[in-house]
Specification:
With 201 residues, this protein is mainly α. The chain has 2 domains: 87 residues, no CATH class; 112 residues, no CATH class. Helix content is 63%, strand content 0%. Helix 1 runs antiparallel to helix 3, helix 1 runs parallel beside helix 4 and helix 5 runs antiparallel to helix 6. The radius of gyration is 22 Å and the shape is elongated. It starts with a helix and ends in a 6-residue tail after the last helix.
Length: 201
């Protein structure tokens, strides 16, 4: 049993990653992917290269097998999103942040397993940073809700980080906890400003 959809999603992505790694392992011994000089030049040679490239993107599966695999993946994805929407309400900002985090985690899943670009690892690393900042925001400046201490926070540049609306319950938080929340909040949206439009595949 899983306590939250996030727990279920985490285990699901682990299982899917193992599936994809098994496909990639099988491709290593597939003679179709051996590095040989192209036998043909011109249009026919280019066509064969493109077919091989698409086969590589399909993890060695035929078009029919890939279509069936993607269809099953889509069904499971829809089911998980349904679970997420049922768990998350619409009445405050926390659920907006939760939606952003969950969507980023889905993009990370896609890029890790099915991304086409060489820079995918670099962009995934940035996405993980964005998710980590969101976790700090959602945990109210702590590493986890209910934590007894706040990690070190640089106070010298605190004036650079301003948040204009805060929850009425913020009176109970200490200065360092507030500052860490403010920093994570401002850096998250600055991070998106710099990088979000570069995340395309």
């Amino acid at each position: 049993m899983y306590n939250t959809v996030e727990d279920y999603f985490y285990e699901w992505t682990k299982a899917k990653r193992e599936e994809v790694q098994a496909m990639e392992k099988a491709m290593e011994s597939d003679p179709r992917f051996e590095e040989n000089e192209p036998e043909e030049n011109g249009e026919e040679g280019i066509k064969k290269e493109m077919e091989l490239m698409h086969l590589y993107w399909r993890k060695g599966l035929s078009k029919e097998e890939w279509k069936a695999y993607q269809s099953k993946l889509h069904e499971e994805r829809s089911s998980i999103w349904k679970m997420f929407m049922e768990e998350n309400s619409d009445y405050d900002y926390h659920y907006v942040l939760s939606l952003l985090k969950f969507k980023l985690e889905w993009v990370i899943f896609y890029w890790t397993n099915f991304g086409h670009l060489e820079r995918a690892d670099h962009d995934v690393s940035r996405m993980r940073t964005a998710v980590r900042l969101l976790e700090i925001i959602m945990n109210e400046g702590l590493d986890r809700l209910g934590a007894e201490s706040v990690p070190y926070v640089n106070k010298r540049n605190r004036r650079r980080f301003k948040v204009y609306h805060v929850s009425p319950g913020w009176y109970k938080f200490g200065k360092m906890q507030k500052l860490r929340f403010y920093k994570a909040y401002c850096l998250f949206f600055r991070f998106l400003e710099y990088h979000l439009l570069g995340w395309w595949d």
